[in-house]
Amino acid sequence: MDTWRHEQRSVETQQIVPFTGEGAYHGSTRRRRPAPKRKPTLLVNEMAPRTLDAYAETGRRDIGSFQAHFPNRYEVVAVLPVPTQDEIRDDGVTFCWCPIELAMERAGPVVRRVLDEMSRHLNGGKRHIYIDAKIQYFEAGDLPVDSQIWHLDGTIVARGERVQRLGHDLLHDMKARLEGPALPPVCMAYQSSLHCATRFATAPVSILLPDLIPNFDVLDRRVRDADPPAADQPQSSIVRFDGLSLHRAVVARDAGWRLWVRCFETDREVHLTSQIIECYGTVFRSP
Questions:
Q1: Taking Cα atoms as reference points, which of 200, 285, 182, 283 lies closest to residue 248?
Q2: 58-92: pLDDT as tens digits
Q3: Structural domain boundaries of the chain?
Q4: Fewer CB within 10 Å, N- or C-terminus of the chain?
Q5: How far apart, in whole angstroms, are the C-alpha atoms of residue 224 and residue 218?
Q6: For 228-243, how does the pLDDT look when each residue is reduced to its tens digit (9 = 90+)?
């Protein structure tokens, strides 16, 4: 499957779909076509659904709760010169779970500067480094993803018979992610513009949460009730966070181009099973 794509962009060709709130890329409840079968990959400790394993061993059918503590790591590690709107539009390449070595080869000038800077701040403790990058044109009120819910990146996701016995097709093992012995994935993100910035929780928060959740709706409701301190990512900055850091998308305040880049350090080897890159960069607009 493609992990990068070069394309010319214009306001007229920006792909726009109606906003539904179903959470595209973020715990969507939307039913999807089954992924094609592929050779199983090694289940690393970082992604082991230990809570689900324990449920299966005992035959437990009800989902319990735990006090979930989110440390909410959030640090600005660099601020780069702000690119012009034309530089953003013309940068050229979209990346989706692209290995960093290939991304460095294919990146346009702006993304290459971002990746050069990100390379200086890598943790270096994980087996794989992947790059996502997308360029989008927003009108005021648009969203970069089909969701405004609080969520985590790199959750432990489980499917299959054990999950179906609990009444679901998919479950995020939140307890294993938050209390497991393995370190979570580590991320950096860059966003170029003031008019549409990711919002990050900036202080620890503890909430009562089900051990296993089918999507992020219950997490979002309880985080909003707790109302932790939060901040929008600064313009043309790189922030570092991890798989225990709550964040969410917010609507664009003004019209304009935005470049978003994520660096994802993980022990999990990613093999794409669908052409997600075909919709990467879609803008979501309320009716």
A1: 200
A2: 999 999 999 999 999 999 999 999 999 999 999 99
A3: 4-29+65-155+183-285
A4: C
A5: 10
A6: 999 999 999 999 999 9
For residue 56, the 8-state DSSP code is H
Which tokens sit at 158?
A: 């489980």
- Please provide the DSSP assignment of 118-154 as one string: HHTT----SSEEEEEEEEEEE-TT-BSSS----B-SS
68 within 8 A of 155, measured Cβ to Cβ: no
User: What is the length of the chain?
Assistant: 287
**CA distance linking residue 129 with residue 67, whole number of Å:** 31
252-264 burial code (b ≥16 CB/10 A, e <16): beeebbbbbbbbb
Interatomic CA distance for residues 113 and 43, integer angstroms:
34
DSSP letter for each residue of 167-214: T-SEEEEHHHHHHSSSPPPEEEEEE--SSS--EEE-S-EEEEEESEES
What is the Cα gyration radius of the chain? 19
Three-class SS state of 239: strand
Amino acid residing at 49:
P
Rounded-to-integer distance, Cα 115 and Cα 100, Å:
8
Tell me the C-alpha distance between 201 and 247, whole Å: 6
